[in-house]
């Protein structure tokens, strides 16, 4: 009779182990919060992920860090915002550094691009005709794909959506308010 108790206890322990494995296996394979996950939708196309606000100092730092990749030994330049937007550059003629200043008024376009309306161009303190200089720059330099010079309108358009920040992620200009030191960009994702 003693042997029968061991058989029953062994079968009971075996049943408990099998039940325990079955319950754990069921819990591990069951999806959690499936009702909530089924309600989550993915937006197709391009959508706004975040809004980024910055000030003049932060924007100047970011722009010039990015422009560092486009410098060469013929011309070096930096872009900064103060009460005006200024592209300050130097280029070499006969081994002499010549300063170039281009002043702009920036505007955010509806497509997220930035329109830089040229207000004046000078070499040192000598003013130059904007159309002529823009035509020269357009023909003499290999500009990045995202920069378009419209010399007749005296504009430079920076197509921000063409500048990839990460895979399928880019910026759009939303608000460029130099007077109040507020610049807002939309972080977009395709």
TrEMBL record:
Give yes or no: UniProt keyword Transmembrane.
yes
Please name the InterPro entries in this protein's record: DUF2140 (IPR018672)
Q: Name the UniProt key words of this record, in alphabetical order.
A: Membrane, Transmembrane, Transmembrane helix
Highest rank taxon of the organism: Bacteria
- One of its Pfam families is DUF2140
Instruction: Please list every transmembrane segment annotated in the UniProt record, as residue ranges.
Output: 6-26
Q: What is this protein called?
A: YpmS family protein
Which species is this record about? Pseudolactococcus laudensis
């Amino acid at each position: 009779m003693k042997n029968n108790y061991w058989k029953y206890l062994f079968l009971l322990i075996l049943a408990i182990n099998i039940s325990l494995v079955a319950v754990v296996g069921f819990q591990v394979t069951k999806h959690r919060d499936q009702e909530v996950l089924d309600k989550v939708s993915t937006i197709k196309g391009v959508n706004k992920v975040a809004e980024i606000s910055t000030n003049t100092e932060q924007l100047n730092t970011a722009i010039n860090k990015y422009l560092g990749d486009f410098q060469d030994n013929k011309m070096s330049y930096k872009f900064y915002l103060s009460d005006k937007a200024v592209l300050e550059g130097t280029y070499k003629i006969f081994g002499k550094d010549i300063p170039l200043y281009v002043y702009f008024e920036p505007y955010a376009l509806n497509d997220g691009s930035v329109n830089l309306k040229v207000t004046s161009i000078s070499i040192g303190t000598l003013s130059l005709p904007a159309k002529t200089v823009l035509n020269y720059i357009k023909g003499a330099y290999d500009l990045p794909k995202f920069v378009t010079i419209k010399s007749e309108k005296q504009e430079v358009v920076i197509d921000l959506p063409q500048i990839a920040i990460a895979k399928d992620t880019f910026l759009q200009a939303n608000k460029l308010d130099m007077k109040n030191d507020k610049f807002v960009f939309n972080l977009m994702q395709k």
